[in-house]
């Protein structure tokens, strides 16, 4: 009879604990009470959405790292590759409270003023897409670096193509 009473008491306590009604000092463990021992701890899973492992990564300090979003020359329209990355960012952000800084970049072709405005349009279009996917706009900020932060040489077509991008940076990195 003691075993049944203890098991019932433990079950009621667990139900109250799960419901948020029990406190730690409301029940004391008695000799003979059943204890559940796990053979091994449950495996930790990544918070990266399935299918996004090649577009997002979690770095040191659980900081999100996002692939750069590519853009065509003189365009702020989202390319298919950019949409795929943004879809992953949106799925990650819906389960996260991380704020995002969305940074627009250009190559060096054109005037500095034009490139600054183009970088702004790229960042804003990316943020608007994330907002349409459910990301809270209050958790996003946009800025343009224009042509001022290249990741490759602007002397080649390949380098200029790499510089036409949007980078999404968690604000926890600042």
Automatic annotation (TrEMBL):
Domain (OmpA-like): residue spans on this chain: 58-174
Keyword field: Cell outer membrane, Membrane, Signal
Principal subcellular localization: membrane
Chain segments carrying region Disordered: 135-174
Any Pfam family hit: OmpA
Gene3D superfamilies: OmpA-like domain (3.30.1330.60)
Subcellular location(s) of the protein: Cell outer membrane
The keyword Membrane is annotated on this UniProt entry: yes
Domain of life of the native organism: Bacteria
Keyword Manganese: no
Compositionally skewed regions (Basic and acidic residues) per UniProt: 157-167
Signal peptide (UniProt feature, chain positions): 1-24
InterPro entries the record matches: Bact_OuterMem_StrucFunc (IPR050330), OMP_bac (IPR006664), OmpA-like (IPR006665), OmpA-like_sf (IPR036737)
Name assigned to this protein: OmpA family protein
Source organism per UniProt: Pseudaeromonas sharmana
């Amino acid at each position: 009879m003691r075993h049944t009473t203890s098991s019932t008491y433990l079950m009621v306590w667990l139900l109250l604990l799960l419901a948020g009604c029990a406190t730690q000092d409301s029940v004391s463990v008695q000799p003979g009470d059943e204890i559940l021992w796990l053979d091994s701890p449950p495996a930790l899973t990544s918070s990266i959405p399935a299918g996004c492992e090649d577009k997002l990564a979690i770095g040191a300090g659980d900081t999100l790292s996002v692939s750069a979003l590519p853009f065509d020359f003189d365009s702020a329209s989202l390319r298919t590759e950019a949409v795929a990355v943004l879809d992953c960012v949106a799925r990650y952000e819906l389960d996260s409270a991380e704020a995002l800084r969305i940074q627009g970049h250009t190559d060096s072709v054109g005037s500095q003023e034009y490139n600054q405005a183009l970088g702004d349009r790229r960042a804003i279009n990316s943020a608007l897409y994330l907002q349409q996917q459910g990301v809270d706009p209050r958790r996003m900020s946009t800025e343009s670096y224009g042509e001022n932060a290249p990741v490759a040489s602007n002397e080649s077509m390949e380098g200029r193509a790499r510089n036409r991008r949007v980078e999404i940076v968690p604000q926890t990195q600042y």
